[in-house]
Amino acid sequence: MPRPLDPANKRQQIIDTAYELFSRSGYHATGTDRIIAEANVAKMTMYRNFSTKDALIVEVLNYRAAHFDARLDRLAEGASTPREKIDTIFDWYERWFMSIDFHGCLFAHALAEFGEPGHPVFDAVAEHKNSLKDRLLRILGPAMNEDQAISASDAIFMLLEGATLMAQMGQGPKAIRHARQAASSILGIADG
Amino acid sequence: MPRPLDPANKRQQIIDTAYELFSRSGYHATGTDRIIAEANVAKMTMYRNFSTKDALIVEVLNYRAAHFDARLDRLAEGASTPREKIDTIFDWYERWFMSIDFHGCLFAHALAEFGEPGHPVFDAVAEHKNSLKDRLLRILGPAMNEDQAISASDAIFMLLEGATLMAQMGQGPKAIRHARQAASSILGIADG
DNA sequence: ACAGTATGATACAGATCGGTCTCTATCTTA
DNA sequence: TAAGATAGAGACCGATCTGTATCATACTGT
Question: Do B185 and B128 share a structural domain?
């Protein structure tokens, strides 16, 4: 049965549209009028679902973070060794960089526009980025001693962030290739 | 002799003020009214020196890029081996991360807000980022074969960018330490 | 002293911002 | 069929945005 007035659908519709617009144009540059116009939604529908624009931004980030985590979880299932699991993460980034609507990292961009610690958007970004670092650490933990794992997971995290920036400047393939090589050097020391 | 009405001074005054405000609050969130107020300058003085706000942004970026390049040039003078020169760059980042008014990378933030290739701001950022990559490549060129140097310079570039992002999340010291260790692994392979 | 220039102060234009409000229409549930 | 919840459409608010125009003032070199 079709449910044209399903609140959950409208809500998701707004999140999806906001996600696309924020990705393409940034947060401050995207007005609420544009979001509701492209989402085909009334303004009050948006403000009934999200108290403020900042709250909408946070929900968009959380939604994408959940999507990202679920994706990496699934990819990791198909890998056995730590090295293979790291590889699946590079695989995901590689495909992401090649996607037609790649505009850089939504979270890094949010950090650029909301750089004040304590701001809801800033905190949402920090949470997601730390969760990626934790994922890397969990993968590398069993493969080397603790100090090495902490250092290596941070390094790979930084390589991924840097690669994303290079990708936004049109150097995605090269970036991912060199990041993989670097990760190999870093990991080669401890787990051969 | 004091020159209260020196055009060059006013111009620099605007660039300096805009730099601080852009760093602290971002580009779209910083209005021209705020810039001229904090620079103690009339609006027309600003628009006579910079045709548009975007043009001012580009000039701020160029000014900081020149400052950055000059700094790294000077630091490199005191180093002899490629490894030492790379270290001076890490040194600079380390001190930058610890500075009281650190708000992340002005250029990365500009890329976040002006992600359209061909936009003057985007192009200014790409030029500066590529110039840093070229610097790294020039340093590493003599120390290893060409393919290795290209890969290693990109890797160190990515580590620096990632470290800057971590620093913005309050993890600067850890980031720079782990980035240095990673760089050591990467360089250790080729130049011992 | 004079002409030319840069500046400050301020009002203004036209658009857009985030957010609120009202009113009507449509759906769901009972 | 009636009550209640949700939606759309759009006017509206005050503030702010980039950029322009005006005009008096203060400094410059000659």
Answer: yes
Q: Which of B159, B166, B177, B180 would best serve as a mutation to test chain A binding (most A beta carbons within 10 A)?
A: B159
Evaluated on CA atoms A58, A63, A66, A67, the torsion sign reads negative
Which structure tokens are listed for B185? 């692994």
- Sorted by sequence, the CB contacts under 8 Å of residue A72 that are 6+ apart come out as A88, A89, A92, A135
Check which CATH number belongs to the domain holding B13 and give it: 1.10.10.60
CA nearest to nucleotide D28 C1': residue: B5
CATH of the domain at B138: 1.10.357.10
For B58-86, what is each residue's pLDDT tens digit? 999 999 999 999 999 999 999 999 999 99
What residue spans of A78-171 are helical by DSSP H?
82-98, 106-113, 120-140, 146-168
CB of B28 nearer than 7 A to strand C? no
pLDDT at B5: 43
Q: What is the pTM of this model?
A: 0.93
Query: What is the pLDDT at residue B8?
Result: 63
Q: Which two three-digit tokens encode residue B166? A: 């971590």
Residue A11 to residue B161: CA distance in whole angstroms: 35
Considering only alpha carbons, which residue of chain B is nearest residue A147?
Answer: B178
